Amino acid sequence: GDEGTLTDEYLREVADNCAAILSEVDGVISCHNEASDVSALNSDVSVMVGADESLLALLDTADNITRLTNRAYDYTLGALTELWNVNGGGPVPAESDISYALSHTGADKLKFKGSTIEKIDKNLKIDLGGIGKGHATQLILEYLATTDVKYGIVSLGGNIGVYGAKPNGQTYKIGIRDPEGSGVIGHLYLTSGFV
Fold first, then answer.
1. Which of 4, 76, 178, 189 is the most exposed place for a label (fewest CB within 10 A)?
2. CB neighbours (10 Å) of residue 12?
3. What is the tens place of the pLDDT at every residue in 90-103?
4. CA-to-CA distance for 75 and 97, rounded, in angstroms?
């Protein structure tokens, strides 16, 4: 319908469904959620049988990006990101610890066959943080396209997706935060897509 038919109840239902999508993604890929599939894969297991289809699809995407970027993005750096405690703010680890963590990285240390994931190196750890929010943003946008909500912005911690045409015909104006201050240093104008 048009905007006048979107009741508060309907919008709450849409918001709840978006939250459920986020929760489902977190339950599969979060390194910080001990119950997630990625956390299970990052444990001492050597083989995961019957892996979740969404995990397999995202690992396939991550693997392709890792290879295409010649490891500029590398989803197998979990041991290193864990060592650096990036979210906790440090401290800087010792060179020997960094070398050891790096020795347990590399997409060549994972094998995929059907729904089975085999870790050639049991100390290898996956970190999908580099693409996880973008993946969740895409899933939410795909869901919203099936609803009566005709346009909008999805923002997940710096990952922004826009969809649909604004009724006034204007583009979406996305601010770029100043990394050294609290202001905005510029804007991007989008009609669709991701930032």
1. 4
2. 10
3. 788 999 999 999 99
4. 19
